[in-house]
Design brief:
InterPro entries: MFS, MFS_trans_sf, Sugar_transport-like. Keywords: Membrane, Transmembrane, Transmembrane helix. The protein is built from 21 helices and no strands. The chain has helices at residues 2-14, 28-32, 34-54, 60-67, 72-75, 78-85, 90-98, 104-127, 130-162, 168-193, 200-221, 237-245, 247-250, 252-263, 266-281, 286-339, 341-344, 349-375, 378-399, 402-405, 411-430. α7 packs across α9 (130-162). The chain starts with a helix and ends in a 6-residue tail after the last helix. The mean pLDDT is 80.
């Protein structure tokens, strides 16, 4: 009893609750369970966020692939597979989720499958080499990415059923902030270990540890108290998918959101090119990798709670501000490289730029996630998430070709192009209506 009261007091403190708890857009039964559910969601997502960092395809998985002598062609596929693979099938699996009145176990299943997939990568790295190891890692990554699709749909739906509308942004903000602190610790650890002559065993054990985080998260998430919700739908998957794509034609609000979200991909797509610039003008010393990881972690700690509170008031403004910051930063870096050559060789420039980009990307993520959850309720929310994620998956595959253009177009030119998309995204998000 005392633990329950302490949990409620901490929940009230974090969410500025006073005499009466407000539960907008959820029923009274769910409202009573909100404090416990709040922290279960926070902890489980904190663990999976750390797991994502420790198995990041841009860093750790790239290192592992190089250690097993993977062909460069296969290494270039790991980022698009991880990002788009989790989105493309969502339109076709949403009908399965809609059949279930309680959907938390869909998230649990997805988390358990991610645990197995990441653990499989660690095992392959220890046991195989060359092309065989490369293809096995790619297969594990495909399984991992598809499993993320289950979690993505189910999470937003469970969040909408268990957490009041005006508290969702803060929850995401606190989750990102705590995750950022753990990422910071991981970056410091990797920075420390970079002094040693580490081999494949170190990276494999790092991946095994990352995998265990999804297993623990699944056990925690299973304890969420979720009351049965809508189950209408659940018809033929392909037919339902085709029907739901009609949302783009009939729902102007949703169509404009999808266009906005597509333009806001600039914050995620720009990140690798800052790393490429650092390697070109500063070098490939291992400490730079640690600094990039630390910069991203600190950005989450500082910005996520602020963006979260702002998103509860106006998530569309958060998208506008963060897209503007992304675009402005990109144009500034391009200008420095072109016109201030003495600065472009400074080793502080790129981690600082990555820090600012991390702040902007947190705003983009929290803004668009809060916006789409608040746009609708029940199965309409599930449809929105499934359709938008599937389309963004296709767009990611197309824009993923930008990495191949890097050898034909200057890295600075790509950053400038993505910055222009960021400006368009800021303008488009500013025209979206507020959601309440």
């Amino acid at each position: 009893m005392a633990n329950t009261e302490s949990l409620e007091q901490l929940y009230d403190y974090l969410n500025d609750e006073e005499d009466a708890r407000t539960c907008k857009a959820i029923d009274d039964e769910a409202c009573r369970e909100t404090p416990k559910n709040y922290f279960l969601i926070l902890i489980s997502n904190m663990l999976t966020s750390l797991g994502d960092t420790l198995s990041n395809p841009k860093t750790v998985l790239t290192w592992v692939m190089s250690y097993v002598n993977a062909p460069v062609m296969l290494i270039s596929f790991i980022v698009p597979i991880r990002e788009s693979g989790s989105m493309l099938p969502q339109l076709f699996i949403a009908h399965y989720i809609r059949k279930r009145p309680v959907r938390k176990m869909v998230w649990v299943l997805g988390s358990l499958l991610q645990f197995l997939a990441i653990a499989g990568i660690g095992f392959v790295a220890l046991s195989f080499e060359g092309s065989l190891a490369s293809w096995l890692i790619i297969a594990c990554l495909i399984a991992f990415s598809l499993s993320r699709g289950l979690c993505s749909i189910a999470f937003k739906d469970v969040l909408g059923k268990t957490i009041p509308k005006t508290k969702r942004g803060k929850l995401k903000g606190y989750t990102s902030s705590v995750s950022g602190a753990l990422v910071l610790a991981a970056g410091l650890f990797i920075l420390y270990k970079s002094k040693d002559d580490v081999g494949i065993e170190f990276y494999s054990y790092l991946i095994f540890f990352a995998a265990s985080l999804w297993l623990i998260a699944a056990l925690i998430y299973a304890n969420i108290k979720e009351y049965p919700g809508e189950t209408d739908g659940g018809k033929n998957g392909l037919k339902e998918a085709r029907d739901r794509l009609g949302l783009l034609k009939e729902d102007k609000h949703f169509r404009n959101f999808v266009i906005t979200r597509s333009l806001l991909l600039c914050s995620a797509l720009t990140a690798p090119y800052y790393v490429l610039l650092a390697q070109r003008y500063v070098g490939k010393e291992a400490y730079l990798l640690g600094l990039f990881i630390i910069a991203n972690g600190v950005a989450s700690i500082i910005s996520a709670p602020v963006w979260g509170k702002m998103a509860d008031k106006s998530s569309k403004k958060v998208m506008t501000y963060s897209a503007t910051l992304t675009a402005g930063l990109g144009l500034l870096i391009v200008a420095i490289i072109q016109f201030i050559p003495a600065w472009r060789d400074q080793n502080w420039l790129y981690p600082v730029a990555f820090f600012v980009l991390g702040i902007a990307h947190q705003g983009v993520r929290l803004g668009r996630k809060t916006y789409i959850v608040d746009m609708a309720q029940g199965n309409r929310r599930t449809d929105y998430v499934a359709v938008s994620n599937t389309l963004i998956g296709f767009i990611l595959l197309i824009t993923g070709g930008l990495s191949a253009l890097a050898s034909l177009v200057s890295v600075e030119g790509i950053i400038a192009l993505l910055s222009v998309l960021g400006i368009l995204g800021a303008l488009k998000s500013a025209t979206l209506p507020e959601v309440e």
